TrEMBL record, chain A:
InterPro entries reported for this sequence: Ald_Oxase/Xan_DH_a/b (IPR000674), AldOxase/xan_DH_MoCoBD1 (IPR008274), AldOxase/xan_DH_MoCoBD2 (IPR046867), AldOxase/xan_DH_Mopterin-bd_sf (IPR037165), N-heterocyclic_Hydroxylase (IPR052516), OxRdtase_Mopterin-bd_su_IorB (IPR012368), TAT_signal (IPR006311), TAT_signal_bac_arc (IPR019546)
Ranges for domain Aldehyde oxidase/xanthine dehydrogenase a/b hammerhead: 223-302
Pfam families linked: MoCoBD_1 (PF02738), MoCoBD_2 (PF20256)
GO molecular function list: oxidoreductase activity
Family annotation (SUPFAM superfamilies): Molybdenum cofactor-binding domain
Name of the protein in its database record: Aldehyde oxidase and xanthine dehydrogenase molybdopterin binding protein
TrEMBL record, chain B:
One family name in Pfam for this protein: Fer2
Species of origin: Ancylobacter novellus (strain ATCC 8093 / DSM 506 / JCM 20403 / CCM 1077 / IAM 12100 / NBRC 12443 / NCIMB 10456)
CDD domains tied to this protein: fer2 (cd00207)
Domain of life, source organism: Bacteria
Listed InterPro entries: 2Fe-2S-bd, 2Fe-2S-bd_dom_sf, 2Fe-2S_ferredoxin-like_sf, 2Fe-2S_ferredoxin-type, 2Fe2S_fd_BS, Beta-grasp_dom_sf, Diverse_Oxidoreductases
Keywords from the named record: 2Fe-2S, Iron, Iron-sulfur, Metal-binding, Oxidoreductase
Protein's name in the database: (2Fe-2S)-binding domain protein
Segments forming domain 2Fe-2S ferredoxin-type: 1-77
GO-annotated molecular function: 2 iron, 2 sulfur cluster binding; metal ion binding; oxidoreductase activity
Amino acid sequence: MHIITPEQYGKMLASFGAATTPSRRGFLQGVAAVSGALVIGVHLAPGKAFAAAATDGPMPNAFVRIAPDSTVTVLIKHLDMGQGVTTGLPTIVAEELDADWSQMRAAFAPADAKLYNNLAFGPVQGTGGSTSVANSWEQLRKAGAAARQMLVTAAAEKWGVPADSITVEKGVLKSGNHTGSFGEFAEAAAKLDVPKEVKLKDPKDFKLIGTRLPRLDSADKTDGKAVYALDIRRPGMLTAVIRRPDRFGATVKSFDASAAKKVPGVVDVVTVPAGIVVLAQNTWAAIQGRDALDKIEWDEASAETRGTAELLDEYKKLAATPGRVAAQRGDAAKGIEGAAKTIETEFAFPYLAHAPMEPLNCVIEKTGEGVTIWTGSQFQTIEQAVTAGIMGIKPEQVKIETVWAGGSFGRRANPPADYVAEAASILKATDGKAPIHLVWTREDDIKGGYYRPLFYHKVRAGLTADGKIAGWEQHIVGQSFMVGTPFEAFAIKNGVDGTSVEGASDTNYAIPDFFVDLHSPQVKVPTLWWRSVGHTHTAHVVEVTIDELAHAAGRDPVEFRLELLKDEPRHSAVLKFLAEKANWGPKAGSGKGRGIALHESFNSVVGSVIDVSVVNGQIKVDKVICAVDCGIAVNPDVIVAQIEGGVGFGLGAALHDEITMDKGVVEQANFDSYIPLRMSEMPKVEVYILPSANAPTGVGEPGVPGVAPALSNAIFDATGQRLRSLPFRLEDFKA
Amino acid sequence: MSFTLNVNGTTHAVDVDGDTPLLWVLRDVIGLTGTKFGCGIAMCGACTVHLDGMAVRACVTPVETVGAAAVTTIEAIGATDEGARVQKAWLDEEVVQCGYCQSGQIMSAAALLAVNPSPTDADIDAVMAGNICRCGTYPRIRAAIKQAATELAGGEGR
């Protein structure tokens, strides 16, 4: 059960009203620009293959193209920000096509929601909610199977043999003495009708899915060839950096640009809603020019002036007052009153920056048809709509060249499309004279907002004399990043933003007397989802509190959870599998500790066991063991990598990550003050995937939520001390 | 000012201020974009290049301090024995995710192996802690460096 399903996120996005018109020409141009290869379906008369795009039928034309040299290129409708969709999606096609992995290629699809919408998002092209493989699963299986059938039909005609006498294996068609490659039949196949019905493989016959295949992006990402937006160079391009206000909500009042304009290479200084823009012939000159801006005055009448300590105090007071009810069954208060034992826990979670390694940037250029954008685009349809609005053109006049993204973790999927909007506003302010490359420095990124919101949770729970949960009452306080966006009406029901309570109000534990409420205070700090969204805090609160209850009841934490998950076979299976793999048992011994957490997010269930040791009064994370049920594992090694990465991301948040503000001014600036996890702190990670025959579910995010609670529980096991709020103040731990 | 740089075996004459960081000369003037900008203050290692085989952070290396040193970037590291083995190990271990930090990771790893052909885990952590990966590819980087080290050692043994 989920408060916000990927489908609901999709409806929210769809409400953005960024309808695009069919863009066949755009599609063909996009394909031609990729390589000029022969595309199955392109030779069809309009109304055949393209008509299929409007239906649920297979659309091999939009996703699969086969070149005369037999290479098969899969058009990738999603952004690859490291999660591996440029390997995962071609795997699905290759499987049904019976291609050899060595002939597979990937290319980012153009921005065209009619062809490349995320099926979990409705009519919007975009990537998020760990939906890429899940929403593409049926679509690309059908596309691959249709392409295979068309090749077989073409070969049958040429060879004069029945189609069912032809076998396809590793990219080779065979019948009797005839053998042929895909390339030989690609042109003839392209002239055929796309089959309406295709037969998909029985999963037991999968040859590629479920095996370790080399990532298609590895080579270009190890020799410097991979092109990110920051590497785009256009003739006459100017680099733009923006001086933004120190406080969120402030605007430019006045400044002196005379010194900035004298910096060699600086071409112009303009203002846009985001701040003061320095345009230069290269990045260094732009940065130097920005440093030379003088006498800047901001209008702070509408600015946020509270610090994070004050905000947290306010949140604590709010938590003691009635909020909007997110979940209610039975009578939690009465249950707790009559309980044999009660516990109270409180948790604070800081603002968090995503800090992808590639600083945010975007290239935009005026063209005869409109504008072209180069960026690691995660919300193509929304970026088209926002840019169109700024430029006064239609969304379909905004062409997006999606390029490799140097990380995102949620940051690039932003409803206001902030940095794309900034780039467009600079292009407009300079009359489109030159292509603009907007570059954020790391300081812009760390100070720039769109953080995971500050959250505060307070829980009261009781145990009956026989160790059952007598009642659970949870109060959650934190900003809604849906308020004020076009998604508000869809995300917020009865005053409750589902993204603030998911993972808590819909916990899978059977707790009959249960209550969760929410306050969503207004703060002018821009906030956004951060890898695993609400689960970044809800999972921690639930899994630490459950652990505390288990200990209070004198029960083993695994056994205690299993009893609460009696009616949840999938969760129970993951927990048992994890306990077996981790050899869960009695306490590891003095100076050692081990903790466990289990959480469902993005339709996947992940269990985490963390081993720690106390060395010279310091906590050391030795090992993390994860068990994952994500349905059919398309690329097991990519899944393992995503869970490993999720562990690293979660550990960073558990140990270091924190944005604080003093009187509204962010106190961190770069990686010297916003501390990332480094290699020396990365534990060994073991990942075990449960065999499954179900359709694939998310893997990009679900590795994150269980890390901090498993660590808190391990520290308790080792030391008897509870660290609850994040990041853990390990200095508070007394050895 | 005019400077003559030896980058990847090719001589480049560049006309920039002497305090311009080598990073921006490589990326914006010479056009070698494999070397990445991550922080600008030598905290993340994305911009790591070699000067005469030693790893340096190009974002804080003023071009006027480079002199006649041989600059090697990710585009040419495969021509060295360590670089080629590191790159191969990166493929074998499927290290990359977003890939943005990997140029710097590979340059740091190659420089490490050049001076320490059989690094321990602690040696690897000490050197590689200067390179941030937000995707969390650290376990695979560690494994890849060990593989490359083993192959280097094996190569010497044969």
